[in-house]
């Protein structure tokens, strides 16, 4: 199989698994969203160490810590702040579906690539194409309409679209390797999760007393690890523009699953907001498609 074809299938696999993982909070009731998040991170820790550690080796992780972080307290502080941001996003991902915020979080993921494009322009001075500028303008119209119609905008949407970009942009600025950075993130995030579980004996009691959790808990950790690993691998195999375009599959699945399976209500006025945001995403997809085609022509020139 050609690398690009392999990358496409891995990307589809990862995006689909992210969508399925969104439903686990509902499947694992009466555990709370926070309980499911804690179990996901602990399960992910063991699964990622089992999957990723053989790939990069413990020596690779030690080398990253020694060479990239070392004794610089500033780099450690930036890295730990990034881990905290990622942890808050992982928590929100599992908390939102069972607290009526499933659609709003999906909207946040729709807005995320638009904010990333703007963040790249501000932080790295990357030039925006005409299509990217138009996409940002349409997204701004969508947010403005929501503010006008409801006098508010969901904090969960804002937390995703404004909280995730600093994590990715700071990791890019630090040139953090994906595998090592992710493994270290999971290790740091898992520490408070173990503490939380130690002070919540009722969570353990529920898991022990109901046999369905014996399958769901390890499956959640495995799906989390496989989805992240497949996503990282596809990012290495695919051109950036094509990978960015395919990454819009996840928020689409989250939005549909939130409505179809979680039965999250949607106000009629919100559909105009979504129209503006989705129109902006369509322009970004077209921009990514043009960039990919341009790269293909250069390769075959």
Model description:
Residues 6-144 form the EamA domain. Belongs to the EamA transporter family. Keywords: Cell membrane, Membrane, Transmembrane, Transmembrane helix, Transport. InterPro entries: EamA_dom, EmrE-like, RarD. The protein has 301 residues and is an all-alpha fold. Helices cover 83% and strands 0% of the residues. It has 13 helices and no strands. It has helices at residues 3-21, 24-27, 33-69, 73-95, 102-123, 130-150, 155-173, 178-198, 201-209, 212-237, 240-246, 249-260, 270-299. Helix 4 runs antiparallel to helix 7 (155-173) and helix 5 (102-123) runs antiparallel to helix 12 (249-260). The radius of gyration is 20 Å and the shape is globular.
What structural keywords apply?
about 300 residues; globular; about 85% helix; 13 helices; about 0% strand; EmrE-like; mainly alpha
Poorly predicted runs are: none
Structural class: mainly alpha
Q: Topology as H/E string? A: HHHHHHHHHHHHH
Annotation, overall tally of beta strands = 0
Please, how many helices? Answer: 13
Nearest-integer average pLDDT: 82
Terminal-residue CA separation:
23 Å
The radius of gyration is: 20 Å
């Amino acid at each position: 199989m050609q690398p690009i074809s392999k990358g496409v299938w891995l990307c589809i696999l990862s995006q689909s698994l992210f969508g399925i993982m969104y439903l686990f909070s509902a499947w694992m009731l009466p555990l709370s969203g926070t309980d499911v998040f804690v179990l996901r991170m602990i399960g992910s820790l063991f699964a990622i160490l089992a999957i990723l550690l053989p790939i990069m080796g413990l020596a690779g992780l030690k080398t990253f810590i020694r060479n990239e972080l070392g004794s610089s307290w500033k780099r450690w502080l930036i890295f730990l702040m990034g881990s905290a941001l990622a942890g808050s996003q992982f928590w929100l991902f599992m908390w939102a579906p069972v607290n009526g915020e499933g659609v709003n979080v999906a909207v946040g993921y729709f807005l995320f690539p638009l904010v990333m494009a703007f963040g790249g322009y501000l932080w790295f001075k990357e030039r925006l194409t005409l299509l990217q500028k138009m996409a940002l303008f349409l997204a701004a119209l969508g947010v403005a309409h929501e503010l006008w119609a409801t006098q508010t905008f969901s904090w969960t949407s804002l937390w995703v679209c404004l909280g995730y970009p600093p994590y990715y942009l700071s990791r890019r600025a630090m040139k953090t390797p994906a595998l090592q950075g992710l493994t270290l993130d999971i290790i740091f995030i898992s520490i408070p999760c173990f503490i939380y579980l130690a002070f919540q004996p009722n969570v353990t009691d529920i898991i022990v007393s109901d046999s369905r959790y014996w399958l769901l808990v390890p499956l959640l950790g495995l799906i989390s690890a496989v989805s992240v690993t497949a996503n990282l691998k596809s990012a290495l195999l695919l051109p950036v523009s094509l990978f960015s375009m395919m990454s819009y599959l996840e928020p689409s699945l989250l939005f549909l699953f939130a409505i179809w399976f979680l039965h999250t209500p949607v106000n009629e006025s919100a559909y105009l907001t979504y129209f503006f945001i989705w129109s902006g995403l369509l322009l970004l997809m077209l921009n990514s498609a043009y960039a990919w085609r341009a790269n293909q022509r250069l390769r075959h020139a």
